[in-house]
């Protein structure tokens, strides 16, 4: 492995295969909910007196006129949208000798090495503290704690055990 220079960054993000599984799981869950929805609607309308009866009757009319597949498609689309939202919320990290950047979707929060007196993990959250022992950030990351600690050690960041 080559020696890291001050300008080289270690990028820690959720693996692509894990992102694909997360997205596919959300789509499948949406499809399943769309598939089960007609059964639940029929059952609920059979009981009567439940809240949201009018919207359920509307959905029942959609099922009767267009078919149950409409709810399956809507469920799949909703699952895909939910999956994309979840992927956009994954928290990654970029570490160099000069700075550390927390990456959430397109949002980035950068901390200069001079701002950080200690880095540690507390209950699974990365905590960065300033010289006055005040938390700069406390963030749950979606990457391995061991990988984060290895990256910080690689650039001699102050790690508190």
From TrEMBL:
Residues 11-159 form the YqeB PH domain. This is YqeB PH domain-containing protein. It comes from Microlunatus parietis. The chain crosses the membrane at residues 21-46, 66-93. Keywords: Membrane, Transmembrane, Transmembrane helix. Pfam families: bPH_10 (PF23494).
């Amino acid at each position: 492995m080559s020696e890291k220079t001050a300008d080289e960054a270690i990028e820690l993000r959720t693996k692509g295969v894990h992102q694909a599984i997360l997205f596919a799981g959300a789509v499948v869950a949406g499809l399943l909910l769309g598939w089960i929805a007609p059964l639940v609607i029929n059952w609920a309308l059979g009981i009567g007196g439940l809240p949201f009866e009018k919207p359920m009757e509307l959905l029942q009319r959609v099922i009767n006129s267009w078919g149950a597949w409409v709810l399956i498609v809507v469920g799949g689309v909703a699952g895909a949208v939910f999956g994309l939202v979840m992927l956009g919320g994954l928290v990654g990290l970029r570490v160099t000798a000069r700075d550390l950047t927390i990456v959430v979707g397109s949002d980035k929060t950068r901390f200069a090495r001079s701002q950080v007196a200690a880095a540690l993990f507390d209950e699974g959250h990365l905590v960065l503290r300033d010289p006055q022992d005040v938390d700069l950030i406390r963030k749950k990351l979606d990457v391995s704690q061991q990988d984060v600690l290895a990256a910080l050690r690689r650039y001699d960041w102050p790690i508190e055990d």
